[in-house]
Amino acid sequence: MTQNSISDYIHELFTQFEPALKEKLIAHVTMKSFKAGELLMQTGQYFRSTVLIVKGRVKLYREGTDGDEFFMYYLEPGDACALSMICAAKQESSKIMGKAIDDSTILMVPIALMDELMKLYPSWYYFVMETYRSRFEELLLVIDSIAFNGLDERLGFYLKKQGEHLNAKQLNLTHQEIATDLNSSREVISRLLKKMEQRGEIRLYRNYIELLN
Amino acid sequence: MTQNSISDYIHELFTQFEPALKEKLIAHVTMKSFKAGELLMQTGQYFRSTVLIVKGRVKLYREGTDGDEFFMYYLEPGDACALSMICAAKQESSKIMGKAIDDSTILMVPIALMDELMKLYPSWYYFVMETYRSRFEELLLVIDSIAFNGLDERLGFYLKKQGEHLNAKQLNLTHQEIATDLNSSREVISRLLKKMEQRGEIRLYRNYIELLN
DNA sequence: AACGGCCGGTGACAAAAGTCACCTGATGTC
DNA sequence: GACATCAGGTGACTTTTGTCACCGGCCGTT
């Protein structure tokens, strides 16, 4: 993978933006990179920018008061972080954690620019609206899964989501990681995974899980 | 309570809107009333308008696949329904239920008007952004309560929220209603309420609960 | 090769939550 | 007043989930 410039990323990932908007962004955004495993955002942090993901995948977690973490969704190249928009707009902090799972790169759009972009560029306006919409829907799915389903169904939902976002049949996840993401415990997850294996839905190996179907 | 006109409601509840925006809205919104207990929106319904609440209180539920309902939050006069915005914008349906708990009135802003309002009136733009922001935060709190807390804490959280939104110390709720809202069962709720009473946090009566503290 | 750390498996038990059956007392209706 | 209905209480039991203790294998480091 070559080292892309801001301009490259914007032209590759945001083809729907009108040329003037792209130029505006190229002139004003700043780029920042993170190593796999690093935290992009932490509880209590204040945003002064809207964050666009241009490389790598980022896991977004909700943090509980006692340090628990609960996985909500992935951000991928071309996505904006809805929470950074919200927090940036109101200068508020939020109990959110973002963790890079690959080496990742983000672009930061200064909040001072947001109102102008919204007014001048319809494609930006639609992009922001679509970001809110899709994240809202995603949160509702998360609520569904914990409000209406047992841990076994949540686990299935979780594995399916992982498979989609990593687009792989082999998930490099330990039972402990899954347990943490679902705010459960390793033993319980191990047992449920074993049942799924017995039902022929997955196959278990050391350090990874193979999705069947 | 006198029968208010669209104009009355807009001038009373949306004082932050600039005069031209108020006039625009008055000219284009339609008003609709619901009796207590009626459903404002149902699973599968398509919105062709953004909904503003101007009278009464509305409970918003998420619906599960098997007809379960899970209470998320209240909408009050002056609020916009973020979900109606989202669904209207994309012409999608959503598994959402809204129930009027008082006699309620809403204003419906045609989606065709939305882009224009967003561009022309900064106060509308901020109102929409603030609506997304506050509902997003509210959903995150809901996720917190079900992801990190036991049913006992969720019940406390629920009662507190009810107290705030009904601004009363006496909650006219049956144990069955609470159980339904929390997607639990009456017996369990009864037992937990009894424990809260023993701890001196509430007092139980037939058909209502008194909040102490 | 020896060590320690990480990964996963397992049995026994405890706690939380849901379910079932049945009861009591209040309330409203005819 | 008789009756049905509704709100709520209670005990016994099951299921689900979490916890504890401990084991064994795999793997990297030295």
TrEMBL record, chains A, B:
Matching Gene3D superfamilies, A to Z? Jelly Rolls, Winged helix-like DNA-binding domain superfamily/Winged helix DNA-binding domain
- Residue intervals of the HTH crp-type domain: 149-213
Gene Ontology cellular component annotations, sorted alphabetically: cytosol
Top-level division of the source organism's lineage: Bacteria
Write the lineage as a comma-separated list. Answer: Bacteria, Pseudomonadati, Bacteroidota, Sphingobacteriia, Sphingobacteriales
Query: GO molecular function terms here?
Result: DNA binding; DNA-binding transcription factor activity
Q: Which SMART domains does this entry report, sorted A to Z?
A: HTH_CRP
Keywords on record: DNA-binding, Transcription, Transcription regulation
The segment(s) forming the Cyclic nucleotide-binding domain are 13-79
By what name is this protein known?
A: CRP/FNR family transcriptional regulator, anaerobic regulatory protein
Spell out the InterPro entries in the cross-references.
Answer: cNMP-bd_dom (IPR000595), cNMP-bd_dom_sf (IPR018490), Env_Response_Regulators (IPR050397), HTH_CRP (IPR012318), RmlC-like_jellyroll (IPR014710), WH-like_DNA-bd_sf (IPR036388), WH_DNA-bd_sf (IPR036390)
